[in-house]
Amino acid sequence: MTPTVDVMDIPQVTLGAINIEAADPRALGAFWAAVTGGTPAPSGDFVYLPPAAPGGFAMFFQPLTGPRPDRLTIHLDLTVPWGTRSAEVERLVSAGATWRWDVLDEHPHVQWTTLADPEGNLFCVAEHPPQA
């Protein structure tokens, strides 16, 4: 028998902000503002980028505290409407991203392009086909 879960027992966890250490927090904050449509709020060496719209996500950029790792073990997956990935990738490359690779036929439920931000942090732009 499956135990009943009371909604009050489920943690009410939400994403407060994605924190990124950067060689140049202001420049990287400006790039991500172009990605998300948010307005950066610099304060000293730090930049806060609030969500651009309800349901969006915040980002916080701070100076590097040590050497950048050779390989990151986490990255962002951004989702765009079906049929708009190519145009969005072009927009992001013109804003300063670097194209790394496309994955277009590995999985039937998603296609994505992997990009790097101006400091080399990888992120993906994915689109899912409409449900039949």
TrEMBL record:
Coiled coil feature spans: none
| Gene3D superfamilies reported for this sequence | 2,3-Dihydroxybiphenyl 1,2-Dioxygenase, domain 1 (3.10.180.10)
Q: Point out the signal peptide segment.
A: none
Question: Which parts of the sequence belong to the Glyoxalase-like domain?
Answer: 18-125
Q: Note the InterPro entries from the entry.
A: Glyas_Bleomycin-R_OHBP_Dase, Glyoxalase_6
Pfam families linked to this entry: Glyoxalase_6
What is the protein named?
Answer: Glyoxalase
Q: What is the species of this protein?
A: Flexivirga endophytica
